[in-house]
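Record type: monomer structure entry
Structure origin: computed from sequence
Chain ID: A
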Amino acid sequence: MELIDSHSHIYGNEYAEDFEAMMDRAREAGVGTIMAVGADLESSREAVALAATRPNIYCSVGIHPHDAAGVTEADYQAVRELALGNPKVVAIGEVGLDFFRDRSPRADQEEVFRRFIRMARELSLPLIIHDRDAHDRIVTILKEEKADEVGGVLHCFSGDLAMAQECIEMNFMISIPGTVTYPSNEALRELVRGVKIEKLMVETDAPYLTPVPHRGKRNEPAFVRYAAERIAELKGLSPEDVGRITSFNTRRLFRIDQPAQQDTIAYKIRNSLYLNITNRCSNRCTFCPKFEELSVKGHELKLSHEPNFAEVIASVDAASDYDEVVFCGFGEPLIRLDLVKEVAAELKRRGLRVRINTDGQANLVHGRNILPELDGLVDALSVSLNAANAADYERLCNTPFGAAGFQGICDFLREAPRHVPQVTASAVTVPGLSVDEVRDLAQSLGVTFREREYSEVG
């Protein structure tokens, strides 16, 4: 499992005696990168110094709201100078508000918070936000200071789902600590269920907030895996999925280089192996996330070229531990019908289950009924129906076939069960769509129906 601990304080005396052993344990747990987060001027300097000695440690600089009352102009300048021109300083933080302990007057906290947001905007660095019992003021100040221009992360998130969504809309990520493992913390687990995995990060806040089963002991980066494992259970993903996705999210936020990789042809999510064979599509759906970026669940799916049979099979051979193979990337697989048939024939020869996720426009693309050609090669079709009438379909899916596009998908679904054992029509619950009408249509066409939550797209 690949992991990034997105928030730690490992420069402290708590690690003086066993720092190297602690780093070894992190590596053994799959933690390849660690963020050392400054909490005052002294610890910010320590974080910068530590990051300079280790290629896999990055850092942030800032002053915690506990110390807001004593911040001087010289302190602001010192923090700015630590960040300027240092590629290992990837964020401003942790900064924010703490109305639980109130160790500094709230007016001072708010002024210092605003100043650091302005500094982050000036330096084009994301923010790491500390928020304790100050949810409304945090959101208000982020909006007033235009923090969305740089974004950032709400660390050790303690707000509700509505606040999380509001912060996500302002270009912020939500970071989940080991407290998600605490038996009493059902509120945080419910929040995890409601937030897209693409908007989540994981952290330890070491040496604090040690997760179960080590609660009561000093926290350390290796323990971030317990948060990832609990998130995996809540999201119905594998721990490897959560590690890969949250690491991708963290690197993207902090502009840490993603690992170099060749074209992703085969990629795993849960227990399915997906095949990404084209970035071309028949439709141009309004809700498709690929128009923002060509990545899904931590996999980069932009292809430099469309792979041939040998490349696809080599990618399948390199994978393991999957229950089915699914033709589904950021493109319409049946555009490459001949390759699909060739690869599917080899997969069926090996006794593998084959599924195709499609927009149902293949008969129009190829000018013939292609479904008989899938007979015996495909076990399941998942068809994106997405509308109950031609007008909605054309509006949502931008089909190049006009009104014929909707009729084409209906004809495809009606015919498909004659050639493929399992056929499912789906619809994304975009605002304003009558999902019940789409369900009724699917059933009238003789296929099962699956509703896809709009928040789960991608």
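Annotation 1: The longest strand covers residues 89-98.
Annotation 2: The chain has a mean pLDDT of 95.
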